[in-house]
Specification:
alpha/beta
Amino acid sequence: MIKLLSRFAFNTIKQPSVAVFNTKKYDIDYLTKVNTSLPEEKQVKLSFFAEQLNENSARLAHECDTVCCFVNDKVNAQVLRKLSTQGVNLVALRCAGFNNVDLKEAEKLGINVVRVPAYSPEAVAEFSMALLLSLNRKIHKAYNRTRDHNFALDGLVGSNLHGKTMGLVGLGKIGICFAKICKGFGMNVIAYDPHRDQKLAESLGFQYVDESDIFYQSDYISLHCPLTPQTRHIINDHSITKMKENVMIINTGRGALIETKAVVNALKKKKIGGLAIDVYEQEEKLFFKDVSQEVLTDDVLARLLSFPNVIITGHQAFFTHEALMNISQTTLNNIYEFKIKGSCINQVHQQ
C-alpha cells in the first residue's frame, strides 16, 4: 500500500521544464545524451538557448520552471526578479562557482540555487600542470618555432620542477589533486587555506603556511580557491612585492583572483617570470566565443597577449569527456532531487 501511494504521488509531479542558457554544441550533446539515458520518470524537458542569461534573454525561460546556466551568465537581482515573475523557482548551475548569482535576492524571491561542486578535479589539476610545464619549458614557443623549421634551442632554457617549492592557494578537491601531481614531480608543496586538515597534510607530505608565506617562499604559485570578497585580487601589487624574483603564477580558478593590471606591471618589470591563466577577470564578453574577426578592445588583455612568457587559454581546464559527463549527470540529478524532495545536497545557501 505504501509503495502504491508513493508511486501515485510521484506521478502527480510535473516533469521539470529546463531552459538551458549559453549552450554550445557539447552542452547539447552531453545533456541530451545523459537525459535520454535516464529512466523516463527522471527525465526533464530541455530547451536550449545559445544566448547568455541576462536581463534581456531571461524572457526566453517563460515556459520553464528551471534555468540552467554557466559561469559567465548573469544571475543578478534584476534577472532573478524577471525569472521569478515567469514562474522559475530553481537555478541549476552546471559549474562549481556561484559568484555570478545574487544569492540574497534569490533567497528573498524563493528561488533555489544548485551547483556542481566537483565534476572532475583531476581534469583541472592536470591542465594546471600542463600550463606550468608549457610555461616553464617554453613548449609554446618551441612549437611555433619548429613549425617554421627553426630547431635552434636559444632562448628555450627552462628549470627543473624537482626540488622547487609550489605554493597552493586553496586546497579543495582540485588543490588536493594538484598537490599530488606536484609531489609526483618531487616538488616541495606548501599550501594556504583557511580550513586546515593536518591529517591530509601528513598523508600527502605538504605543509600549511600563512598567506604571506605562500608569497615569500614559493617558486611557483597556483590558484585553486573560490572567488569570495576575501580572495578577490589576492594577487595584487602588495602580494607581488612579497614574491620571489621570476616567480611563475598559474590560475585555473577564477579570473578575479588576479588583479590583472598589477600582474602586467610586474611582468614589465620582470618581477614575475611567467604567467599562465585559463581564466580572466573580464572574460565574460570574450571566452567561449570566436572573436577572431573582431578588433580586441580590451587593452589589458591585448597587453597580456603581447608577452612571450604568458600563456592564456579560454577556460578549458574542465574540458574533458569525463568532466562533461559528470557535469551533465550531476546537473540533471540536482534538478530531479530538488523537484522530488524540495531540497538537494548540492544546494547553494547564502553565507
